[in-house]
């Protein structure tokens, strides 16, 4: 009997490929898996691919062993038989979200402030349920916990996105006791190396540091090919860009560049200066152009700055997730803020920032997005990520660009754009199936049906149902 060695070799390679992609999961993960088949076809979907290009209706998408292997107009591809077929007629497919300002802690309201409480068991699940397949923790309260969660997810023992873990917030003083991390003449390089050895892959600097601190931090991180982001106050955006920072958080909402006679290395309130700033002010445009020249990325985080009046008590439909006592607290906070002078100023600041972000984007500035579940406690993981897409449309971005900001731009910043961030042949099968047409109503973004991570399809509703009434308890 004559054997075709090429055929045998092809069979061996296919078997190896299949086995190498199949990951074993613990029961706490497998309970939420809808499909883990080696070949899956999403049939007749509306595709928004994350590139910013035109929408593609009636698309068949083939997933094989965790990768996207074919995309084409329905009926035109030669599709394999006897495989899992998901009818996506009337539904939308997106890339998995890649969001760059997330946390595994919740800002639990307390005495007109908040306490950061680690949501070890709920937040990772909720992020994935909403379609976040990759995220960066832009600052950690419990960095060891974040690393342990990341490792458990990677090992198939816990449910959640791929996580880029940041250092604890690097700060010398401040009003949040859980955040301060530098003291006196402490050696910054040794402090950073401690976290890098443990597996931290990003650096987050916070409000109260000096320019000399930031210079050292950037030098140490960049020598190890690690990027630095910052929520800054004592240092202006222009100063940080000059020193070589990679990323600035909260778009322009944290900028103190426009405070008259700002003392060097001192944190001041920049709110009033921003309220008085027009998006076409020459000083602002000059700063934008400088940030673009220095290749500084801005992360837009509208969620914690959203006003109260005429909006949901807990945005994104997240009220169902809160423990009853926390929902009562949120209702009280909402009632105390609606139709107040403070909230009208909050609304004005919110609208002005939308215009600034659009202007920065129009000029060619690099933008990523994230939700930052802090503030008054109404920004809830997962729910807020879907709501963020709604707010990008409200800001004025067309849907194709809104999805690109939430997917490809984040992947590009993290340097993983060749693997994920768009729905393209050859990339990992990280994508979202929405039970509705996003072009008909952006609110359909809340109808997440399946989330594919590395080709494994997770049941979004089942995950969200599992955390109802539990936020604030874990």
Lay out the secondary structure.
Blueprint: H1 5-21, H2 27-30, E1 33-35, E2 39-47, E3 56-64, E4 67-73, E5 84-87, E6 92-95, E7 97-102, E8 105-110, E9 113-118, H3 123-129, E10 132-137, H4 143-154, E11 162-165, H5 188-198, E12 202-205, H6 211-222, E13 227-230, H7 237-243, E14 247-249, H8 271-275, H9 282-293, E15 297-300, H10 324-337, H11 341-362, E16 366-369, H12 383-395, H13 399-406, H14 408-414, E17 431-434, E18 448-453, E19 456-459, H15 460-466
Parallel strand pairs: 2-5, 2-6, 7-10, 10-11, 12-13, 13-14, 14-15, 15-16
Antiparallel strand pairs: 1-19, 2-3, 3-4, 6-17, 8-9, 17-18, 18-19
Helix pairs in contact: 3-15
Give an overview in words.
The chain has 474 residues and is of the alpha/beta class. The chain folds into two domains: 118 residues, Urease, subunit C, domain 1 (Roll), CATH 2.30.40.10; 318 residues, Metal-dependent hydrolases (TIM Barrel), CATH 3.20.20. It has 15 helices and 19 strands. Strand 2 and strand 3 form a beta hairpin.
> Under the CATH scheme, which class of the largest domain?
Alpha Beta
Q: How much β-strand is present in the residues?
A: 15-25%
CATH homologous superfamily heading of the largest domain: Metal-dependent hydrolases
**Low-pLDDT segments, ≥5 res:** 1-20
Topology-level CATH name of the largest domain: TIM Barrel
Say how many strands there are: 19
Main beta sheet: 9 strands, mixed
Distance between the termini: 64 Å
What does the average pLDDT come to? 93
The number of helical segments is 15
Helices and strands: which structural class?
alpha/beta
What is the domain tally? 2
| Shape estimate | globular
Cα-atom radius of gyration: 23 Å
């Amino acid at each position: 009997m004559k054997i075709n060695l090429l055929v045998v070799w092809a069979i061996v390679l296919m078997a190896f490929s299949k086995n190498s992609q199949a990951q074993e999961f613990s029961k706490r993960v497998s309970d939420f898996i809808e499909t883990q088949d080696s070949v899956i076809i999403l049939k007749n979907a509306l595709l928004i691919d994350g590139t910013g290009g035109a929408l593609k209706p009636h698309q068949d998408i083939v997933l094989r062993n965790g990768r996207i292997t074919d995309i084409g107009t329905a009926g035109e591809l030669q599709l394999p038989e006897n495989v899992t077929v998901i009818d996506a007629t009337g539904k939308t497919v997106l890339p998995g979200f890649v969001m760059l300002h997330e946390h595994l802690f919740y800002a639990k309201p307390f005495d007109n402030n908040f306490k950061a409480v680690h949501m070890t068991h709920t937040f990772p699940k909720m992020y994935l349920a909403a379609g976040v397949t990759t995220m960066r923790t832009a600052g950690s309260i419990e960095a060891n916990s974040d690393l342990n969660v990341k490792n458990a997810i990677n090992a198939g023992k816990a449910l959640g996105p791929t996580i880029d873990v940041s250092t604890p917030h690097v700060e010398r003083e401040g009003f949040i006791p859980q955040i301060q991390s530098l003291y006196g003449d402490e050696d910054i390089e040794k402090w950073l190396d401690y976290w890098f050895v443990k597996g931290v892959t990003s650096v987050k600097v916070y409000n109260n540091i000096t320019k000399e601190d930031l210079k050292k931090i950037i030098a140490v991180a960049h020598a190890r090919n690690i990027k630095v982001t910052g929520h800054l106050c004592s240092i202006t955006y222009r100063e940080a860009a000059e020193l070589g920072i990679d990323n600035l958080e909260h778009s322009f909402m944290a900028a103190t560049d426009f405070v008259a006679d700002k003392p060097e290395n001192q944190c001041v309130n920049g709110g009033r200066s921003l309220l008085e700033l027009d998006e076409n002010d020459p000083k602002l445009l000059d700063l934008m152009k400088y940030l673009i020249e220095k290749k500084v990325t801005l992360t837009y985080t509208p969620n914690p700055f959203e006003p109260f009046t005429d909006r949901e008590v807990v945005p994104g439909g997240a009220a169902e997730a809160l423990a009853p006592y926390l929902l009562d607290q949120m209702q009280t906070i909402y009632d105390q803020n609606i139709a107040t002078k403070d909230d009208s100023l909050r609304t004005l600041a919110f609208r002005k920032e939308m215009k600034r972000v659009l202007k920065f984007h129009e000029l060619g500035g690099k933008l990523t997005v994230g939700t930052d579940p802090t503030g008054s406690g109404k920004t809830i993981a997962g729910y807020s990520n879907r709501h963020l897409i709604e707010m990008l449309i409200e800001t004025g971005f067309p849907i194709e660009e809104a999805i690109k900001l939430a997917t490809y731009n984040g992947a590009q910043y993290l340097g993983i754009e060749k693997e994920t961030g768009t729905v393209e042949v050859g990339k990992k099968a990280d994508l979202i199936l929405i039970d509705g047409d996003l072009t008909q109503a952006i609110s359909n973004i809340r109808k997440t049906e399946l989330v594919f991570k590395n080709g494994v399809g997770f049941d979004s509703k089942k995950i969200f149902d599992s955390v109802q009434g539990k936020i604030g308890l874990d």
